[in-house]
From TrEMBL:
This is Histidine triad (HIT) family protein. It comes from Modestobacter versicolor. It comes from the Bacteria. A motif (Histidine triad motif) lies at residues 107-111. Pfam families: HIT.
Amino acid sequence: MTQGPSDCLFCRMVAGEVPPDVVRETDRTLAFRDINPQAPTHVLVIPKEHHATLGALAAADPGLTAELAAAAHAVAVQEGLASEAGPEPGYRLVANSGPQAGQTVHHVHLHVLGGRALQWPPG
Ligand code: 5GP
Ligand code: ZN
């Protein structure tokens, strides 16, 4: 696995230096609860390998990008937000990229949000 920057919070979680509240793990992805939840379910899903943004990940490794999307959906199913029958009651995936989107951790992550009615558009 690519060694991420030593100052990257999510790489430190992958390395076991900071213990996250893990909800799901695969060989190449990790999902854990957001420390500041914005909905009853607020889980962050990351590739274990360091990439700054979703676009950078997609360019570098399309297969891992697909795994990340599948992992996020699996979290939604696990949290009771979706099932084999479809996306009921439903959930939102968010990938903030860059400063105007409010990205604060520069290791790509999908936010899985659900458990309440979500407003659109977001602020
Ligand atoms: P962004 O704004 O980059 O899209 O999202 C970063 C997310 O990481 C935020 O929702 C924030 O609450 C979360 N976060 C920041 N520090 C920690 C931490 O130490 N542990 C966990 N579990 N989440 C964190
Ligand atoms: Zn990282």
